[in-house]
Design brief:
3 copies of one chain form a homotrimer.
Chain A: H1 19-32, H2 41-50, E1 54-55, E2 60-61, E3 66-67, E4 73-75, E5 80-81, E6 86-88, E7 93-95, E8 100-101, E9 106-108, E10 110-112, E11 121-123, E12 126-128, E13 133-134, E14 139-140, E15 145-146, E16 151-152, E17 157-158, E18 166-169, E19 174-178
Parallel strand pairs in A: 1-4, 2-5, 3-6, 4-7, 5-8, 6-9, 7-12, 8-13, 9-14, 12-15, 13-16, 14-17, 16-18
Antiparallel strand pairs in A: 10-11, 18-19
Chain lengths: 189, 189, 189
């Protein structure tokens, strides 16, 4: 049996805001977020909050960040969103406190049911728990929870949940070691 | 023995159109394709056809798409070219009907012979057969044919042909399962 | 124990130039480098040298290249920096002669100590030795030396040194074969 994309129908998808709000966000995003110039961080955080995002204290948004729907985004305290990060949040994305989302990481909430002849859209939320680190160019797939203080290594792809404190690598990412955080290392700073 | 790039010579490479046409395409591409703003899909399809591409009915071209040579591109009916897709088609690229090329996927036709002291350019066509899905940030290498209804998973790299209905993952991508399309799933929509 | 990014402190990091020079570079980079339009190669090479880079004869810089600190960059003779390459050189990056850094490859010198409660910044230099090839969308991690004439395959991630003439693939990249450069292949050109 084959797929027929002419029958695709995402009318049931909830965008969460009116088209007017969406266009307004696109304009604001183009002015403040989607280019490589440095913009005052407080302005970006304020814009996100104005469009419905929850953003904690001390959160840092670097240049070139792409956010689909700010009204489906929660960012904790002292979270870092790195240069060129893409949050394609068709569903809710929750980014915990003290997290680091590094350069060009990609959080994607949209998927398709490839067993369905109409290629039905499936969306699922992403949760990045407190203290986790999504390294550069890593990808977090729809529905994944990255456990507290877990690490997703550079260029790796998380297709299922990562346990807390797991250091994971590869495509698909598998656990390689466990993150141990100690006071001993402070002496090296 | 070592490589000597000062001896590199791609004079034999056929770009397919005059420099004037190429510059005109760059301008059109910059105006209609290569930015993040929404542009009327019919205008983009018309521009591709004007520059020699074959584009089917119902094809959708999202923002930020990069196409090297439209005159070396064929897109079928109801094919989707996702946001930020890069079609680096130094050779012919054929994208079948009812295909989905997701966000930032990369179809690359250019390679080098690394056994050659002059690092000779090698180009080879890519074929994405009907119903296939190239998921987000996946890469299809020169000369690869992605079989009908095959799936290349998120961030995976196809370095050799994918069999029809194969679901492939990893770098290099290997078959993980077989895609089965059924009417049963329609009830879930 | 958990990480506390409010205690993060990178005051010890040496940027290498004053803020004025950095802003000037950002402007020049925006004008000459960071867009998709073709710019005279000699102008780009001259700008890099003006900002402290060492650039050899015959080096080619394609459009869309991102360089963090030109004063921490050395490029050899007849080296190619491909479209959209990102050299995030918080530490020194040395790119040898007759090297090819292909499209959207990423050389990243910044890391964090994830065992440290303050998530201490760690930077380490990258060396790409003569004749090596970093293929499209590949990633070279901090501190890695890519040996002479080694090849890092498309989309692969080098997390440790690659031996000379090794052909490496995957995430993490492992050696798959050895590069042999012969005069025999010249007949095929």
């Amino acid at each position: 049996m084959s797929v027929d994309l002419s029958r695709y129908d995402n009318a049931g998808f909830q965008r969460g805001r009116s088209a007017v709000v969406e266009v307004a966000w696109m304009l604001v995003s183009g002015l403040l977020f989607r280019h490589s110039l440095a913009v005052w961080n407080g302005g970006k955080v304020g814009a996100l909050r104005l469009f419905g995002a929850t953003v904690g204290e001390g959160a840092v948004i670097k240049p070139g960040v792409r956010i689909k729907f700010p009204w489906k985004l929660r960012i904790g305290d002292h979270a870092w969103i790195g240069e060129g990060v893409w949050i394609d949040n068709l569903a809710d994305v929750t980014i915990g406190s003290h997290t680091c989302i590094s350069q060009e990481a990609f959080l994607v909430c949209g998927n398709h049911d490839y067993t369905d002849p109409t290629f039905r859209l499936r969306t699922a939320p992403i949760v990045i728990e407190d203290g986790a680190w999504i390294a550069a160019r890593a990808i977090v797939c729809p529905g994944v929870t990255v456990g507290s203080h877990a690490v997703l290594a550079v260029g790796s792809v998380a297709v299922s949940d990562l346990p807390p404190f797991a250091v994971c690598q590869g495509n698909p990412a598998v656990q390689k070691t466990t993150r141990r955080i100690g006071t001993a290392s402070e002496g090296r700073a």
